[in-house]
Amino acid sequence: MSGYLWTATDAAAATRGTAQGAWDGVTGISIDTRTILPGELFVALMGENRDGHAFVADALAKGAGAALLSRIPDGLTRDAPLLVVRDTLDGLRDLGAAARARSRARVVAVTGSVGKTSTKEMLRAMLASQGHVHAAEKSFNNHWGVPLTLARMAPETDYAVIEIGMNHAGEITPLTQLARPHVAIVTTVEPVHLEHLGSIEAIADAKAEIFCGLEPGGVAVLPFDSPHFARLAAQIGEARPVTFGRTPGADFRLDDARIAGAVTVVRAHARDVALTFKIGAPGVHFASNALAGLAAVEALGGDITRAAMALGQWHAPEGRGHRWSILLGPGGLDGAVNLIDESYNANPASMRAALAVLAAAEPQDGVGRVARGRRIAFLGDMLELGPEEAPIHAALAAAPEMAGVDLVHCCGPRMRALWEALPREKRGEWFEDSEKLAHKARRTVDAGDVCMVKGSLGARMARVVEALKGLGRAVDAQLREEE
């Protein structure tokens, strides 16, 4: 064993490139000099506003094992370890294709309007006790993220979980054909990316592209409750369908899901087998993701009972429901603010799910300046919703999940519509952007409050999360509860 993820010889053969300088191999792959580790291959990707070739010298100075590039920048030594290719993104794709070809892994691909990353992370947890699992650390689900995830896959991997996203038609097809999954999941179809796709039917068709990369004899995992189920099912080709949902007749049927403090208790049937298990995060919407994951585990040949038990140790990823306790004063002497971080992204379906989690949370009374603990939402714009974005935002005011929320602060031009539609007793303040809201947020919460922050990534609601965490000592609430 060389200890290399890629030897110089194998990487050059995969990319049809030329290896130069003194290097034998690399231990990993990176596209970011801020996080690169010694021994990794730095890929100099080209972007609209960024040329990775400008960072090659920095990567090598930080100990990169080699750099994959299409031209040699000035200032490099003659013996610099390089892999020269015609195009760096194509080179990365070639490495991804070669990694997939040499691997024995059983591969599952995940897409959907909501729940892609949570489902991917659940599958990572469910399969971890059943073999060597490979999955992206973050939401690397686009034209460079999927090849990067595949290229990082070790030959000895048993299971690989590949998240695939899109915001235009035609984007999923080349990615699923690269991943060649044995199982493909569509979590749900919702009115997301309407600005680019125009209709919910077009969104369903774009999500169904994931099935065109399935290996022969593959399995398509479909949301049985979706109004677009038939449209999805019509596009699975020769794949075997497996369904999940609450609807009678689903192969993996959800009987009941309820939030119980910091966990979600689920009762379900996997075909004729009754299952009761816990998910280690509050959120009824997580139960649907769990069933999709269990269906995939079965299709991959795994043990669904062990997989379900593993979900008790699963926690929501950062930005997607991760919870923090912010201890106020020395050692939390002045109480705590509980924070639900949903800042990574937002659409109407995920917004309602997050509001439901907030509504089910238990504030603490009598510990702060305000006698009664409150449930407070900090909401930013939902993007890419098209010409109906204003009424879609405003409609959240009448959502049943909003009934359990005490106060709503908003930011962004689109969220103005929600703010104006809210009843006066729930209406907090509105700000032009998240920077202004973040500045004020610290002065609007009190000990005993539960806060939830959510908005599309472009709304930059992470600013508000960081502002709230800055109130005191931020402790991972999920780890704290396990102590």
From TrEMBL:
Record domain Mur ligase C-terminal: where: 337-456
EC number(s) per entry: 6.3.2.10
SUPFAM superfamilies according to UniProt: MurD-like peptide ligases, catalytic domain, MurD-like peptide ligases, peptide-binding domain, MurE/MurF N-terminal domain
InterPro entries: Mur-like_cat_sf (IPR036565), Mur_ligase_C (IPR004101), Mur_ligase_C_dom_sf (IPR036615), Mur_ligase_cen (IPR013221), Mur_ligase_N (IPR000713), MurCDEF_CellWall_CoF430Synth (IPR051046), MurE/MurF_N (IPR035911), UDP-N-AcMur_synth (IPR005863)
Alphabetical list of Pfam families matching this protein: Mur_ligase (PF01225), Mur_ligase_C (PF02875), Mur_ligase_M (PF08245)
Mur ligase central domain residues: 110-297
Species per Swiss-Prot/TrEMBL record: Thermohalobaculum xanthum
GO MF assignments: ATP binding; UDP-N-acetylmuramoyl-tripeptide-D-alanyl-D-alanine ligase activity
Family listed: Belongs to the MurCDEF family. MurF subfamily.
Residue ranges of domain Mur ligase N-terminal catalytic in the record: 26-70
Catalysis performed (reactions): D-alanyl-D-alanine + UDP-N-acetyl-alpha-D-muramoyl-L-alanyl-gamma-D-glutamyl-meso-2,6-diaminopimelate + ATP = UDP-N-acetyl-alpha-D-muramoyl-L-alanyl-gamma-D-glutamyl-meso-2,6-diaminopimeloyl-D-alanyl-D-alanine + ADP + phosphate + H(+)
Pathway field: Cell wall biogenesis; peptidoglycan biosynthesis
Gene Ontology annotations of biological process type: cell division; cell wall organization; peptidoglycan biosynthetic process; regulation of cell shape
Purpose: Involved in cell wall formation. Catalyzes the final step in the synthesis of UDP-N-acetylmuramoyl-pentapeptide, the precursor of murein.
Transmembrane segments: none
Domain of life: Bacteria
Localization terms from the record: Cytoplasm
Protein's name according to its UniProt entry: UDP-N-acetylmuramoyl-tripeptide--D-alanyl-D-alanine ligase
Gene Ontology terms: cellular component: cytoplasm
Residues noted as binding ATP in the record, renumbered to the chain: 112-118
Coiled coil: none
Chief location: cytoplasm
Keywords assigned by UniProt, alphabetized: ATP-binding, Cell cycle, Cell division, Cell shape, Cell wall biogenesis/degradation, Cytoplasm, Ligase, Nucleotide-binding, Peptidoglycan synthesis
